């Protein structure tokens, strides 16, 4: 059996009438990089703070390596934490910042010096021991915060949007460095982020949260390519959400009438006549001027150049019930010059790209 390093059992937290976390049950396997992903107010940060002990749940239990810690204060829980603002002590040297937790644990001075040196070497800051935080760049400060967390050899690493204050290029570099360190230490990690790319790039598993509940839990590929609900599809950038009715079905494929055309999908739970919501990712949509048996007739509203791709925005359906759509076309042959605003086209995609959502219209 897989060992579990963090368990939440029926955890609930409310602030007045607002439910921040709604009866959440969750397991984080040993050595996994686990991300809580969602917009502001979805409950992800509250969940992290409950694991850390900064918030006490109204009910439910928190376990770290099988030990119930629901009533245990933060300083007695076996975790290391990196905050978004790094939370370094400005009056302490880099070495003293990293050594702070070890001193709280009354580790002897010789061991502290050795362990601090090892930790700073791991994050590529050997030789920076005597500098102060204000003498370092944002990326270097984040490495110090990581070293301070990892030097304790904790059971769990908690990361509270630690990349949010960095510029785009540095953020991408630190994604790789954090993931490499996590794998090197084989440390169970709970990562909170609102950035889909970060979660997809770094995680073994992603839980997409909405209003205090997990809407979908799976691998990055599952969550990105096979969203189960309308919320997850929109949050992961699916973009095209269409309502339809199943008009034909066999054991392998069903045909869905979308009003402005038909689409095929893998056979699902709804039989003929059933109402469904479907989604298709913009990068899976192609455009054609010729009509076909399968596809959606739409009118182009804008064409926007995005470097490697051109984003073609469209509306489909009758004038009184138009549905916005978007296609992301590769720019191998000047896609932005091929399509014009106001042009009527046909949006096409294959049956593997049609995802039938769990939501009911």
Short overview:
By secondary structure, the protein is α+β, with helices and mostly antiparallel strands. The protein contains 9 helices and 20 strands. It has 2 domains: 4-227, P-loop containing nucleotide triphosphate hydrolases (Rossmann fold); 233-356, Beta Barrel (OB fold (Dihydrolipoamide Acetyltransferase, E2P)), CATH 2.40.50.
Descriptors for this entry?
9 helices; elongated; 2 domains; alpha+beta; six-stranded mixed beta sheet; 36% strand; 361 residues
Give the secondary structure arrangement, pairings included:
Blueprint: E1 4-15, E2 18-29, E3 33-37, H1 44-52, E4 59-64, E5 67-68, E6 79-82, H2 94-104, H3 109-122, H4 138-150, E7 156-160, H5 168-185, E8 188-193, H6 196-202, E9 205-210, E10 213-218, H7 220-225, H8 230-235, E11 240-249, E12 253-257, E13 261-266, E14 275-280, E15 286-288, E16 295-306, E17 309-316, E18 323-330, H9 335-338, E19 344-348, E20 355-356
Parallel strand pairs: 3-8, 3-9, 6-7, 7-8
Antiparallel strand pairs: 1-2, 1-4, 4-5, 9-10, 11-12, 11-14, 12-13, 13-16, 14-20, 15-19, 16-17, 16-19, 17-18
Helix pairs in contact: 2-3, 2-4, 3-4
Tell me about this structure.
The chain is an alpha+beta fold and 361 residues long. The chain has two domains: 224 residues, P-loop containing nucleotide triphosphate hydrolases (Rossmann fold); 124 residues, OB fold (Dihydrolipoamide Acetyltransferase, E2P), CATH 2.40.50.100. It is built from nine helices and 20 strands. The strands form three sheets. Strands 11, 12, 13, 14, 15, 16, 17, 18, 19 and 20 form a ten-stranded antiparallel beta sheet that branches. A hairpin with a 2-residue loop joins β4 and β5. α2 packs across α3. It is elongated, with a radius of gyration of 25 Å. The two termini are 40 Å apart. The mean pLDDT is 89.
């Amino acid at each position: 059996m897989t060992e579990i390093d963090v368990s939440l059992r029926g955890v609930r937290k409310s602030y007045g009438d607002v439910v921040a976390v709604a009866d959440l049950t969750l397991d984080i396997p040993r050595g996994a990089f686990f991300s809580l992903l969602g917009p502001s107010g979805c409950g992800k940060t509250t969940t992290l703070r409950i694991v850390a002990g900064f918030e006490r749940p109204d009910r439910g239990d928190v376990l770290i390596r099988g030990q119930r810690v629901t009533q245990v204060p933060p300083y007695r829980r076996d975790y290391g934490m990196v905050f978004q603002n790094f939370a370094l002590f400005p009056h302490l040297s880099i070495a003293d910042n990293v050594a702070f937790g070890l001193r709280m644990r009354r580790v002897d001075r010789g061991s502290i010096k050795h362990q601090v040196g090892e930790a700073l070497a791991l994050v590529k800051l050997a030789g920076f021991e005597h500098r102060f935080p204000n003498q370092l760049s944002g990326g270097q400060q984040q490495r110090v915060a990581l070293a301070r967390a990892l030097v304790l050899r904790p059971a769990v690493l908690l990361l509270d949007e630690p990349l949010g204050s960095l510029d785009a290029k540095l953020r991408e570099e630190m994604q790789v460095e954090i993931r490499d360190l996590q794998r090197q230490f084989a440390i169970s990690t709970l990562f909170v982020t609102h950035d889909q790319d970060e979660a997809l790039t770094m995680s073994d598993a992603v839980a997409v949260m909405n209003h205090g509940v997990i809407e979908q839990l799976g691998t990055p590929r599952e969550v990105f390519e096979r969203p189960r609900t309308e919320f997850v599809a929109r949050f992961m950038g699916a973009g095209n959400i269409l309502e339809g009715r199943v008009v034909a079905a066999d054991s392998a494929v069903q045909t869905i009438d979308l009003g402005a055309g038909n689409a095929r999908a893998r056979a699902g739970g709804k039989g003929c006549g059933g109402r469904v919501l479907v989604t298709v990712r913009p990068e899976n949509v192609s455009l054609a001027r010729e009509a076909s048996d399968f596809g959606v007739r739409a009118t182009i509203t804008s064409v926007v150049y995005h470097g490697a791709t051109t984003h073609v925005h469209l509306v489909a359906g009758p004038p009184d019930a138009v549905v916005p759509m978007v296609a992301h076309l590769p720019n191998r042959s000047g896609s932005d010059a091929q399509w014009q605003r106001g042009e009527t086209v046909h949006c096409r995609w294959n049956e593997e790209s049609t995802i039938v959502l769990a939501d009911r219209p």
